[in-house]
Amino acid sequence: MNICEPFYTTKGKDKGTGLGLATVYGIVKQSKGQIAVFSEPGTSTTIKMYFPVAELRIIVGKGFSKESSNELGSGNIVLVEDDEAVRNLTKRILESNGYIVNEFESAEEALEMIASIANVGLVLTDIVMSGVELGKKLKVKFPGITIMYMSGFTGDALEDMNEREDDSLFISKPFTQNALLEKVKQHM
Q1: Fewer C-beta within 10 Å: the chain N or C terminus?
Q2: What are the domain boundaries of the chain?
Q3: How far is the C-alpha of 99 from the C-alpha of 95, rounded, in Å?
């Protein structure tokens, strides 16, 4: 397979070094993968890379970094997140560290049910999913409630974030267990 040899190229002189595919080949082989190349004269070339299946392990525990407190949290948290995997992981992190989590898949569901939850200490919601509208509606119904927003988006995608009152009430996704717990502890 000449195309993956370092410095092999079909380009003219001074038009390229051929290191791109050699680098890709090295990464694929290091990962115990394979490369298949399909090419016919006069048509396009297809390069397929195959990697072994990786096992995903999520370790959630009561461990904190050295600078974190070893105390467990307490209180009721309302979690509003439409991504099931993120919602489940976030809930597991919070519950394994002492919090009671009431989870909702939509802002509408959370608004409908929150009145039945006693002593809500914090609402943690995805801002792109619900925007700041959920926060505004909750503040009207429950003055003094604390709303913490989370998002995997940054910059222009979060223009309506300017309507929040406090930057400390925001956490970027993906977040670590310690980062989430520290933010929650600040506001519970």
Answers
A1: N
A2: 2-50, 76-187
A3: 5
Q: How many whole angstroms separate alpha carbon 108 and alpha carbon 16? A: 56
User: In the numeric block, which tokens belong to residue 179?
Assistant: 């980062």
Nearest to 72 by CA among 100, 94, 97, 101: 97
pLDDT at 168: 61
Q: How open is the CA angle 64-184-157, to the nearest 5 degrees?
A: 110
**In this predicted model, what pLDDT tens digit does every residue of 42-63 receive, in sequence order?**
888 888 989 888 765 555 554 4
pLDDT tens-place string over residues 13-39: 666 555 567 777 777 887 888 988 888
Cis-peptide, bond into residue 174, ω within 30° of zero: yes
Query: Do residues 80 and 60 lie in contact, with contact meaning Cβ atoms separated by under 8 Å?
Result: no
Q: Cβ neighbours of residue 175 under 8 Å, at least 6 residues apart?
A: 150, 183
pTM of the model: 0.59
Count of beta carbons in the 10 Å neighbourhood of residue 29: 12
